[in-house]
Amino acid sequence: MSGMHQIFEDVCTTCGNAGLTHERVRSAVWHGERLVVVEGIAALACGACGERFYEPSACEALDALRRAGFPAKAAVREVRVPVFSLGASSPVDADQSPREARV
Ligand SMILES: [Zn+2]
Predict the structure, then answer these.
(1) Which fold has domain 3-81?
(2) Is 45 in a helix, a strand, or coil?
(3) 69-84 tens-digit pLDDT
(4) Cβ-based neighbour number of residue 103 at 10 Å
(5) Looking at residue 89, what is its pLDDT?
């Protein structure tokens, strides 16, 4: 779709495919016990393997959001997220979490 912006000097470091395309992608980010979604991330996407490489400006913006703690009042909207578990007897594995204890 965004083939107009195709560039050929960038090569996918995962599969070697040349011709990454500029795209706006979204990503889910765990911030402690919170799950947040970030949209409109400027990235280079590989059409061959699906790998995405965030552009430097996007990384800086993401870092700034993370440092700010993903403030709820800055969110544009909220989504409900279904949660699935592959371990019926242990809905929460917080005990095994090696980092980021609950606040
Ligand atoms: Zn690739």
Answers:
(1) Ubiquitin-like (UB roll) (3.10.20)
(2) strand
(3) 999 999 999 999 899 9
(4) 6
(5) 66
